[in-house]
C-alpha cells in the first residue's frame, strides 16, 4: 500500500478526546502487585536490584555440560525477541496470578519459569496484549507443561488477524497467525472483548482498544499489512493492542504493555482517563520505539512521559536502545533496565 494512501492516513490520525470517560471504569485498588518478566529480549545476570526490583541470579538453572568436571554448568535465563510477564495481584489476603503474553518460542517462557522456581500451575488466567507471534508463541509450551483445560484467555477479537511484512523491494513475509480453533483445542477458554474488561474481582483492568489521541503516535509503517478478506492493506493501528492496568492503593496506576502498538502515551492517558486515577505510578513493558520508523517519536514520547512523573519506568522488549538511553537521561530515578527474570514489587 502506498505511503500517501488516504484511508491509511485517516485511520492513523489521532482522534480528539477530552474530558472524563463516557463509561468510566471503577478499578478497585490493590495492596500489592508483583510483575515478573519471564521473557524479554535481554538477560543480564549482573544487574543490581533494590527494594522494588529483584534480579535473577547469574547462575540460575543447572544444565548438563560434559566439558566440566561435574558435568554441569549454570545456564542463566533465556532471552529472545519476545515478551512475557507473570502478574501477581494481592488484595487483602487474596492473591491472583495472571500470565500476560507468552514470548516467541514454545519452550522459552516455560523454561525460564522452571529455572526461576515458578509454578505455572498457579496461573489463573492468560491475557494476550495482541496477536503478534512474539507474544503468543509460548501458549503451546504453557499447555504442554501444565495443561490449560478451562483456563480463561482474554483477547481482542482482532487477535486472529492475518498479517505480513512487505518492505519495499523485498518479497512479503507472512507472520504466524494465531488460531482460535487451535487455542480452544488445547483447552483455553477464549474470551474476546473490544471494550475494557475487569478481572480479579474488579482489581485488574484490560484496556481493550485504546483511544489514539496524540499527534505523534501514528502506528506501524506501510510495510505492516493485514488481510481484510479481499486483499492486503496497510495495518497501522494494530487495533488488538491492549494493556493490563492495576491501581496500587495510594500510589497510582501500574500499566503493563506488550509492545505498546497503540502508543505508550496514548495507553497511559487512556488508562488514567478510564479509571479516573490521577497518577501514573509505573510503566512496564515494550514501548515499540526501536528502528527508523519509530525513533523520530522518541523525543515527544519521553517528554510526555516525563510530564506524568512516574515512579518507575521499565522499557522492555521492542523499546530500543535509543529510547532506553533517552528515558534513562530524562527519568534517572524512575528508569530501570529490564531483563528476563526480574521482579518488580509495587505495594501500597
Automatic annotation (TrEMBL):
All copies of domain Metallo-beta-lactamase, residue ranges: 96-175
Q: Record's InterPro entries? A: DHPS-like_MBL-fold, Metallo-B-lactamas, Metallo-beta-lactamase_dom, RibonucZ/Hydroxyglut_hydro
Report keywords, A-Z.
Hydrolase
- List, alphabetically, the SUPFAM superfamilies matched: Metallo-hydrolase/oxidoreductase
Q: Which Pfam families does this entry report, sorted A to Z?
A: Lactamase_B (PF00753)
Q: Which domain of life is it from?
A: Bacteria
A molecular function annotated in GO for this UniProt entry is: hydrolase activity
What protein name is recorded for this chain? Answer: MBL fold metallo-hydrolase
Identify the species of origin.
Pseudofrankia asymbiotica
**Organism lineage:** Bacteria, Bacillati, Actinomycetota, Actinomycetes, Frankiales
Amino acid at each position: 500500500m502506498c505511503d500517501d494512501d488516504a484511508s491509511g492516513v485517516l485511520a492513523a490520525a489521532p482522534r480528539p478526546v477530552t474530558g472524563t470517560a463516557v463509561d468510566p471504569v471503577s478499578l478497585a485498588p490493590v495492596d500489592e502487585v508483583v510483575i515478573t518478566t519471564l521473557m524479554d529480549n535481554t538477560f543480564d545476570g549482573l544487574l543490581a536490584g533494590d527494594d522494588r526490583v529483584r534480579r535473577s541470579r547469574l547462575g540460575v538453572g543447572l544444565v548438563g555440560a560434559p566439558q566440566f568436571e561435574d558435568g554441569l554448568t549454570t545456564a542463566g535465563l533465556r532471552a529472545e525477541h519476545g515478551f512475557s510477564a507473570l502478574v501477581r495481584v494481592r488484595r487483602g489476603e487474596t492473591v491472583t496470578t495472571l500470565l500476560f503474553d507468552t514470548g516467541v518460542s514454545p519452550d522459552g517462557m516455560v523454561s525460564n519459569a522452571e529455572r526461576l522456581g515458578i509454578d505455572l500451575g498457579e496461573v489463573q488466567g492468560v491475557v494476550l496484549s495482541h496477536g503478534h507471534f512474539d507474544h503468543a508463541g509460548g501458549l503451546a509450551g504453557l499447555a504442554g507443561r501444565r495443561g490449560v483445560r478451562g483456563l480463561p484467555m482474554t483477547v481482542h477479537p482482532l487477535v486472529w488477524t492475518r498479517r505480513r511484512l512487505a518492505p519495499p523491494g523485498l518479497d512479503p513475509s507472512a507472520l504466524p497467525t494465531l488460531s482460535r480453533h487451535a487455542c480452544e483445542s488445547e483447552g483455553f477458554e477464549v474470551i474476546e472483548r473490544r471494550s475494557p474488561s475487569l478481572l480479579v474481582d474488579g482489581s485488574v483492568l484490560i484496556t481493550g482498544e485504546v483511544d489514539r489521541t496524540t499527534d505523534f503516535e501514528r502506528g506501524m509503517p506501510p510495510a505492516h499489512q493485514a488481510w481484510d478478506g479481499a486483499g492486503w492493506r496497510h495495518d497501522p493501528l494494530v487495533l488488538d493492542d491492549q494493556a493490563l492496568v492495576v491501581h496500587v492503593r495510594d500510589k497510582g496506576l501500574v500499566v503493563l504493555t506488550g509492545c505498546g502498538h497503540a502508543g505508550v502515551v496514548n495507553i497511559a492517558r487512556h488508562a488514567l482517563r478510564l479509571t479516573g486515577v490521577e497518577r501514573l505510578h509505573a510503566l512496564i513493558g515494550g514501548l515499540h520505539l526501536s528502528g527508523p520508523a519509530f525513533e523520530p517519536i522518541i523525543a515527544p514520547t519521553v517528554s510526555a512521559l516525563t510530564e506524568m512523573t512516574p515512579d518507575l519506568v521499565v522499557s522492555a522488549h521492542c523499546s530500543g536502545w535509543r529510547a532506553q538511553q533517552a528515558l534513562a537521561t530524562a527519568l534517572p530515578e524512575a528508569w530501570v533496565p529490564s531483563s528476563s527474570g526480574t521482579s518488580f514489587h509495587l505495594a501500597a
